[in-house]
């Protein structure tokens, strides 16, 4: 069984999607996206600087567009048995699996990026990668801190990202290092994604998600907050709303997809970060990057 996975924020690079533009279908979709967004995001993707690509209003739609347009150009070769996306990638996965239209998916991603940016500006906050500790140790230490700090991304065994207030993350990094973490590395991000500090963004995005049409996907989707096979549109919506403040359970997602019969993983979008994470869960699992016909 073939599992397709879609990357999230951080996978962007200058030149992303440029080769896709030569495909007529892809060109049409890029131009449609430029129209919806109101500026030529394709130009920034193909030749913009790293700084331009880091802007929130650019990063999330750019990664979404690269992933979704690549999936659309795979033609008959794209027959997913299951899909999943890391954080933002969940929206790409839903469009690729025909649960969400291209236009609605893009509009939701833009709304999500704007809502997250606003939430980041309300309170200074950050994230940090913790390497070499068991999940429970990280969770217990975060729970004992009298500040907002939570386990936000379960990326692979031995790698968790924590998220919260600057003070909370600083205290947690110190305590986790004392508990034996190999590294506690603060990340260069704009805010505390997938933590309670994203509650204003969750409220703002909730209405947009509730009003959008989501159809049953062509195959099960394994979502970040509930990594079990799902094809129910209402449950998909509920999980999407929870995602902004809930943890990305990526380790559990990959483990469950393998348990459910996945025999290979194909990453659709910029970079190969997710392939590396799959290998950390199961070294023997074949992985590859999707390429246009």
TrEMBL record:
The keyword Transferase applies. The keyword Lyase does not apply. It catalyses: holo-[ACP] + malonyl-CoA = malonyl-[ACP] + CoA. Keywords: Acyltransferase, Transferase. SUPFAM superfamilies: FabD/lysophospholipase-like, Probable ACP-binding domain of malonyl-CoA ACP transacylase. Residues 5-292 form the Malonyl-CoA:ACP transacylase (MAT) domain. It comes from the Bacteria. GO terms for molecular function: [acyl-carrier-protein] S-malonyltransferase activity. It holds the Pfam family Acyl_transf_1. Its EC number is 2.3.1.39. Belongs to the fabD family. This is Malonyl CoA-acyl carrier protein transacylase. The gene is fabD.
């Amino acid at each position: 069984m073939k599992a397709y996975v879609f990357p999230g924020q951080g996978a962007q690079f200058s030149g992303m999607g440029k080769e896709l533009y030569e495909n007529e279908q892809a060109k049409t979709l890029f131009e449609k996206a430029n129209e919806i967004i109101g500026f030529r995001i394709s130009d920034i993707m193909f030749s913009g600087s790293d700084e331009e690509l880091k802007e929130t209003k650019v990063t999330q739609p750019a990664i979404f567009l690269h992933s979704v347009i690549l999936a659309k150009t795979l033609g008959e070769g794209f027959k997913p048995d299951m899909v999943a996306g890391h954080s933002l990638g969940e929206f790409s996965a839903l469009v690729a699996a025909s649960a969400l239209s291209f236009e609605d998916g893009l509009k939701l991603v833009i709304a999500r990026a704007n809502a997250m940016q606003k939430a980041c500006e309300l309170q200074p906050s950050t994230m940090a990668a913790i390497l070499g500790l068991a999940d429970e140790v990280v969770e217990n230490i975060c729970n004992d801190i009298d500040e907002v700090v939570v386990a936000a991304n379960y990326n692979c065994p031995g790698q968790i990202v924590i998220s919260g207030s600057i003070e909370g993350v600083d205290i947690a990094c110190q305590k986790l290092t004392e508990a034996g973490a190999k590294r506690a590395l603060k990340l260069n991000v704009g805010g505390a994604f997938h933590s309670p500090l994203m509650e204003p963004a969750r409220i703002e995005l909730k209405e947009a998600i509730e009003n959008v049409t989501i159809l049953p996907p062509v195959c099960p989707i394994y979502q970040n907050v509930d990594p079990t096979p799902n094809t129910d549109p209402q449950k998909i919506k509920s999980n999407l709303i929870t995602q902004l403040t809930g943890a990305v359970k990526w380790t559990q997602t990959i483990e469950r997809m393998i348990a459910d019969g996945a025999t290979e993983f194909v990453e659709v979008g910029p970079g190969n970060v997710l392939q590396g994470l799959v290998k950390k869960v199961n070294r023997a699992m074949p992985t590859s990057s999707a390429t246009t016909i």
